[in-house]
Every structure is written in structure tokens, then in C-alpha cells.
Amino acid sequence: MAAGGDLASITSSGLNNFVEALTSSSSGIFIGGWATSGESTWYWSDGSTFSYTNWNSGEPSRGSEDCMVLRPAGNWNDLPCSYAKAYICQYTLTTVA
């Protein structure tokens, strides 16, 4: 991203709950999970290890759904990246001496 951030990577249950509490979207928000078309492997946009998951039942359903949404219930759904949705970003803080 131009400002130096990434879409949020959800790497734990605690972080999932924290991000869920920040949003008031009734249709979900884009987070940093993505998959290459035709692959079943998911990645985080910042390169974080993809070890924690919280998929909604029956998800990911794939097809042309290569981006990830945090649903209002706190679980995840895959959707086409072209959908217009709110999103949440994260930034890595650096210490300046």
C-alpha cells in the first residue's frame, strides 16, 4: 500500500476478536488474506505465517473468490476481490532514536 501498510493479518483468536470489535460493518470488511486463482493455499498480504484460521462453515468456497472478509460474526468468508467493501489496515511501528 502507498502509505506503507498492509491489510490486517489475523494471526490469533485474540487478534480476530480485537479486529472484530473495531468494525461496525454489517456486511464484513476485507482483511489481508488472499489466494492465487485456482490454488487452495491462503497467504497474508504482509507475509505473516498463515497458521490460525477462523473460516465460516463451508468456507473457503473458492472459485473466483481470492480475497478474505471478516464477517460481523467474527468468522471469515472468501469473496471476489472486486467487491466494494470496507477494509482494515495495519502498520508496523518502528522506533526512532
UniProtKB/TrEMBL annotation:
SMART domains: CLECT. Gene3D superfamilies: Mannose-Binding Protein A, subunit A. CDD domains: CLECT (cd00037). Keywords: Disulfide bond. Residues 1-90 form the C-type lectin domain. Transmembrane segments: none annotated. SUPFAM superfamilies: C-type lectin-like. PROSITE patterns: C_TYPE_LECTIN_1, C_TYPE_LECTIN_2. Signal peptide: none annotated. This is C-type lectin domain-containing protein. It comes from Cymbomonas tetramitiformis.
